[in-house]
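Entry 14. Structure prediction run on the chain below.
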Amino acid sequence: MESDYIINGSLSVVGYGLAAVGPGIGLGIMIGQTQQAIARQPEVAGRLFTNMIIGAGLIEVLALLGFVGAIIL
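Output returned:
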């Protein structure tokens, strides 16, 4: 007996999932390295934290672009 399953949906959801992987890895590496740098030199923690937040914002833009691209397609 043949299976009559029909798959409905969009491959853009899969694309968004793959687009979220890169920024997730990038954030993990960046936060880990910032924590390591703060542990080594606590006196520059303020500047490192500010730079980390700016970098996190830029990385999150990549995830949002993937989300918008998934919606548009």
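The chain has one domain: 12-72.
Filed with the rest of this week's runs.
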